[in-house]
Amino acid sequence: MTPQQSQHTWQEDVLGQAAEWKSQGDDVALATVVTTWGSSPRPVGSQLAVHGDGKFVGSVSGGCIEGAVVLEALKTMDDGEPRLLDFGVTHEQAWEVGLACGGKVQVFVEKLK
Amino acid sequence: MKFATLERLLRDRSEKSSVVLATNLNTGDERLVYPSDLEGENGLDPAVAQAAGEAFRSDRSKTIETEEGPVFLHVFNPPLRMIIVGAVHIAQPLARMAALAGYDVTIVDPRAAFATDERFPGVTLLTEWPDDALETLAPDSRTAVVTLTHDPKLDDPALEVALRSSAFYVGSLGSKKTHAARLQRLTETGFGEDDLNRINGPVGLAIGARSPAEVAVSIVAQVTQTLRQEA
Questions:
Q1: B202 preceded by a cis bond (ω within 30 of 0)
Q2: CATH architecture label of B81-229
């Protein structure tokens, strides 16, 4: 996106922010929605950039799973291993971080190396 | 993801190049795939190459199964475009709303008094004649063309170029009477019924819009409907 556009559109520049953090020497992980089933709040390709101190930009849901994704992103920054996370009503964590809309999403989390 | 891959992606984005990022979800291995890679020998898994081609065309990212495990194909296409003919009052809110919805907006109006930076801060303005401007801009299947001048001398040449292109949306401001006269003129120019049915006129969804901003809402809504519901 050109500077002109990022100024005019509401979308956050997730990848640009990730690159900026990384170039400052900070740990960064990217989380990406790679599959959705049923109604899901954010489409495939939606991304979250997570900083080593836990702050983030972007979204992978309407806000229901970001907390859990950030925790997994911090683990990925620690061990360097990518993770594929499933969220949905059938997930055992549904009580904590399930999607209220009843959909399911799969989120890929990887460290920026 | 490697930092070098991210930097390359950001550079492609600023250069408005199409690219697919293919990531193996088991291993994290990644590769950037360009449309030019799909021609000839490329070392790509045939399933990945085929799905990447589909992703470019449909503008949709997806995960596919391969012998090496699941691969996520993340498509990064340049922004959708909206070409607005007529730097008129309605163009002011329309340009801003379309930009909010993610469109790269260009306004075409040879009347230099209308197309000024003061009236359209931050928007690309072209003061060429509309048919010349549209030939240069070359609308494609990710472009919407909206004419707003009411003036056949300006609107018609733009519509003629738009109808010969694969623009996914063509709309033209004007009352039913104005629109009927427009269709008559374009018929005389040689356009058939299928061509003319592509023109949304009167432009915008019928929501009873009154102010320029409300008309802009109706146009952005109709463009969105055409983009998303006909895919």
A1: yes
A2: 3-Layer(aba) Sandwich (3.40)
